[in-house]
Amino acid sequence: MKIIGTGVGLPRLRVTNDMIAKYVDTSDEWVSSRTGIRERRIISDETLIDLGTQAAKEALAKASVDIADIDLLICSNVANSYVTPSLGCIIQGKLGASCPCFDINNACAGFLTAMDIADGYISSGKYKNILIVCAEEPSRIVDWTSREACILFGDAASAAVVTVGEGLQKMRISTKSMPDVLYYKRKLEYNPFVTKNEEGFKPLQMNGREVFKMAVSASVADIKKVVEDTGWKMEDVDMFVLHQANLRIIESIRQHLDLPEEKVPHNVERSGNTSSACIPILLNELLEEGKIKKGDKIVFSAFGAGFSTAAGTYIWE
Ligand code: ACO
User: Fold this and answer.
1) Residue 22 Cα, ligand 1 centroid: separation in angstroms?
2) The CATH homologous superfamily of the domain defined by 2-166
3) pLDDT (tens digit, 9 = 90+) per residue, 233-244?
4) Helix/strand/coil for 208
5) pTM (global) more than 0.90
6) Which residues line ligand 1 (CB under 6 A)?
């Protein structure tokens, strides 16, 4: 399986740390020194569906693949206003596609999880061209009256077209059930037959320090394992494309693995944490800047709520 086109759909509104400081007790100094984040895009008058559609169209154009030739659409999403039908199904309609489609939710590891699913379908010969759309609006699950989590996230969509090829080498997905560390629990509709206590519906809850530790240790372990399983040495790798949770997490992973700065690119300072959309956004930027070339060895690593992680090795074709 190989990636043949990437695309991005970003909200128009840039929200700086100073803008957030008008609503919660925080400061640009605190946020940028603790997270590296200086601004993020937040959905205002657009819809997540529009952004997902825009990202998909750009990826299709770059891949030179007509929507009619897409065999499957996988949409990675944590939360949007539709519980059903799937977000992928709605984006399918906007694209004028007729292929099957479904959503997955593996939090920030969603893009790599979708790649793994796509690889399974393509390797089996069932499908040839698969469109992956990651569409995320974390700004609508965080608490904007509390400073802990709203500063971390940004909204965005990104997409990739994948097809038959030899780019993907190994992919490893892991899950460790720890829902208390990071969760968002939404309220269900009233049901007259429910007798159990159903309290505890809250905006996104996060134990920041625990998430930080788990993210670093899981990513370091995943990367070591997947590099070894591929038969590579760490120094063989040209680029480490990591989930953009925050700069301190990225920097800590880099230091644990003793990697040179130029091999661990980041854009979290401009985008914030856009959940599963992060990796294709960064990949799209690196490709546009000509920083990835044919034959480059790439390691992907993502980590998030669950606690779910994924890492893969890839040779750019
Ligand atoms: N602005 C100002 N002060 C703040 C803010 C804020 N936005 N948030 C917390 N503080 C305060 C706290 O109240 C606390 O004050 P106190 O000492 O008076 O009690 C102080 O800052 C220190 O708080 P900590 O939570 O200990 O700060 P820490 O250094 O751990 O940084 C952070 C918090 C940035 C959340 C860090 O733990 C982190 O990066 N964790 C990872 C979280 C993450 O990336 N989540 C994303 C989702 S999951 C994923 O994608 C991996």
Assistant:
1) 18
2) Thiolase/Chalcone synthase (3.40.47.10)
3) 999 999 999 999
4) helix
5) yes
6) 26, 30-31, 34-35, 108, 147-148, 151-152, 182, 206, 208-209, 211-212, 215, 245-246, 248-249, 273, 303-304
